[in-house]
Design brief:
The protein is α+β, with helices and mostly antiparallel strands and about 160 residues long. It contains 2 helices and 12 strands. It starts with a helix and ends with a strand.
Length: about 160
């Protein structure tokens, strides 16, 4: 291999050594030039976080559970589930949500819930939880709602 390399003309040996260095350097310089031409690429996406506050007591079966803050209000209520052994909580936000995370906390145990959108209404979300896992009629709900460049979160006591 070395015999082949040293058998090449000098300009080819220099080209073989310099090519990787120039290509990596050119890539870096191109990145600097593009960022200078397009300043919006330099901006970091800033996500604001807001704490949602529960208004009064949260009674799910009565549909009397509302959490609000900064132009977003979310109503939670218990609705009939797909199975009698499940608790279905319907989440109705006042604005479009990109994503929703919920969990039920009982003592030291936290169960994460999978939130899905209703098929016929993309604005309404729901979660289902086995009733047999509820140790008491009162429990803590944790909720995080994602919007564009904004995440709202809440932790509050809820009852059936």
């Amino acid at each position: 291999m070395l015999r082949w390399f040293f058998g090449l003309p000098v300009h080819l040996r220099i080209a073989i050594i310099a090519a990787p260095i120039l290509s990596i350097g050119g890539y870096g310089l191109m990145d600097l030039w593009v960022r200078k031409q397009n300043p919006s690429m330099n901006d970091e996406v800033k996500v604001q976080t807001y704490e949602l506050l529960a208004q009064g007591q949260c009674k799910l079966r009565a549909g009397d559970c509302m959490i609000v803050r900064e132009g977003l209000s979310i109503r939670l209520k218990a609705v009939p589930a797909s199975d009698k052994q499940l608790l279905r909580i319907q989440v109705e936000p006042s604005a479009y949500l990109r994503g929703l995370q919920m969990s039920v906390v009982q003592g030291e145990q936290e169960d994460r819930l999978i939130a899905e959108q209703l098929e016929d209404n993309t604005e309404v979300w729901y979660v289902e939880y086995p009733l047999e896992r509820l140790k008491q009629s009162s429990f803590t709900l944790r909720l995080a709602a994602a919007q564009i460049q904004r995440v709202s979160f809440a932790e509050f006591e809820a009852s059936l």
